[in-house]
Amino acid sequence: MFSRSPVLNLSGPTEFVFRVFTAVPEFQVLLFLLFLSLYLMNLCGNTAIIWVVCAHSSLRTPMYFFLSNLSFLEICYTSVVVPLMLSNIFGAQKPIALAGCGTQMFFFVTLGSTDCFLLAVMAYDRYMAICHPLHYTLIMTQKLCIQMVASALGLAVFLSLQLTSLIFTLPFCGHYQEINHFLCDVPPVLRLACADIHVHQAVLYVVGILVLTVPFLLICVSYVFITCAILRIRSAEGRRRAFSTCSSHLTVVLLQYGCCSLVYLRPRSSTSEDEDRQIALVYTFVTPLLNPLIYTLRNKDVRGALRNVIIGKAASDTS
């Protein structure tokens, strides 16, 4: 599926180049238009969620506060990857310096980790809303919500800084190193090191467990209690609304954690570089796009608020 280009072996500072998707000009145009379209849809969809939550007073609740933060993360997450990826589809391979690669890896891991932590925070919010509705407004204050988002970001920055710093202490032999990927992700960069990486691989697994496994287990525990509480609701309409709200979040969780686990937690002997690259396309494009689609198409409050904001904006423009 992917084209392999020759890698120059010159002396000098190490630079990385990304493996091209294809050398066929017609396919390059199609891929560029496809990825650009998905990126613009991601930007528009997630920006619309942030806009409607900020503009509509009825959506200023913890659930929608976390959702707007998730949308902002998705915008930043894709913007760290996609513009550079699009610039490398056409023409010769464009080198990226060691520092540039490390910077992209740091922000990619930071934003991706914050995304995973925030999904766990959203599960806790749903747990409090459904299992402890009488205490929900007393516990889930604006101050606590801001602290939870800040804590998720702070922990992600700490883990990402440690992991990225450790990886870029490794030696990379030769001037040009070709990464079989479209971004400076951890596993493909590790494969290029000309030194023993067992310790670095172990650290990657530890970070993967902290970022993926622990939050996912907390989400599962939250949904066990949530399911039990929903089943005790006597009203069929109440049960349907509760399940609808939770299923949107759970869909995003399963896709995000499932794809990331396949890349970061599989044994190295069973991984394929091309498979990792294809899976990365899912959590780079599909998951951020599903976030606004799932939460708007399946959420009556967001649909109604979005419709009201658009109608109000149109009315003010015509007056």
UniProtKB/TrEMBL annotation:
The keyword Transmembrane applies. The gene is OR10Q2. It is a multi-pass membrane protein. It comes from Equus caballus. Belongs to the G-protein coupled receptor 1 family. One of its GO terms (molecular function) is olfactory receptor activity. Pfam families: 7tm_4. It is found in: Cell membrane. Its main location: membrane. InterPro entries: GPCR_Rhodpsn, GPCR_Rhodpsn_7TM, Olfact_rcpt. This is Olfactory receptor. It comes from the Eukaryota. The chain crosses the membrane at residues 29-52, 64-86, 106-124, 144-168, 202-231, 243-265, 277-297. Residues 45-295 form the G-protein coupled receptors family 1 profile domain. One of its GO terms (cellular component) is plasma membrane. The keyword Membrane applies. PROSITE patterns: G_PROTEIN_RECEP_F1_1, G_PROTEIN_RECEP_F1_2. Putative odorant or sperm cell receptor. Keywords: Cell membrane, G-protein coupled receptor, Membrane, Olfaction, Receptor, Sensory transduction, Transducer, Transmembrane, Transmembrane helix.
